[in-house]
Specification:
The chain has about 210 residues and is α+β, with helices and mostly antiparallel strands. It is built from six helices and nine strands, in the order ααααααβββββββββ. Helix 2 packs across helix 4 and helix 3 packs across helix 4. It comes from Gluconobacter cerinus.
């Protein structure tokens, strides 16, 4: 029963329109440029504050590069804003005594070279945690340019498929459906799928 229930999101992730991804990249880029202008920072100064290269920041601002969660987290921390500030598309923010409901199809969809992320509860800013549903399209550690290494902690629950957790310190761990893990992101990790289909995971990032 549960395996059948997770399939609709897989279909949505696979069939999502490239236009949606382009729109999100443009939105993140515009917000980044707006924040940098408010600070009066050059690209080099922003790079020093965020630990993201000036060339990468420039490409993100122009909508030419889809930033990973690690890059987004570094940018948000460097500018002193919440991660959701870079991703919020609704223009709304829920105040004190907050509660949000996410229905199928809700959230902010983002594709990178290694995964497709669906950021949930995007209307709530200044969250202590960020829930994300991800389809992992990477098939080996070589699909990543670098180790995902940034501040925070992560809880991962595998909904379907087989997820391989590769890290700088430990041997690779294979996680099947309904397995889970919790780790410090500063550990340096890479996710990739080992089964016939991309792994589908629900995870929570807290910093």
């Amino acid at each position: 029963m549960y395996r059948q229930e997770v399939e609709p999101l897989r279909t949505m992730l696979v069939q999502s329109s490239p236009r949606d991804d382009a729109s999100l990249d443009q939105m993140v880029g515009s917000k980044l440029k707006e924040l940098r202008t408010e600070k009066g920072w050059s690209l080099m100064e922003a790079s020093q504050e965020t630990s993201v290269s000036a060339s990468a920041l420039s490409r993100i601002e122009r909508g030419e590069l889809s930033p990973t969660l690690g890059s987004l987290s570094k940018i948000a921390r460097g500018f002193g804003v919440d991660l959701t500030t870079l991703l919020n598309t609704s223009g709304q923010e829920i105040a004190k005594f907050r509660r949000a409901i996410s229905r199928e199809g809700d959230g902010v969809l983002q594709k990178t070279g290694t995964c497709t992320n669906l950021f949930l509860m995007d209307e709530i800013r200044n969250k202590k945690m960020q829930p994300i549903r991800t389809q992992v399209t990477a098939r080996s550690p070589a699909d990543y340019r670098e180790w995902e290494n940034y501040e925070g902690e992560v809880f991962v629950f595998v909904l379907s498929g087989t997820l391989v957790l590769s890290s700088e310190l430990y041997e690779d761990v294979y996680l099947d459906a309904f397995d889970s893990t919790y780790y410090d992101v500063s550990l340096g990790v890479k996710w990739y799928s080992a089964g016939k289909k991309p792994a589908d995971v629900l995870w929570i990032y807290a910093r």
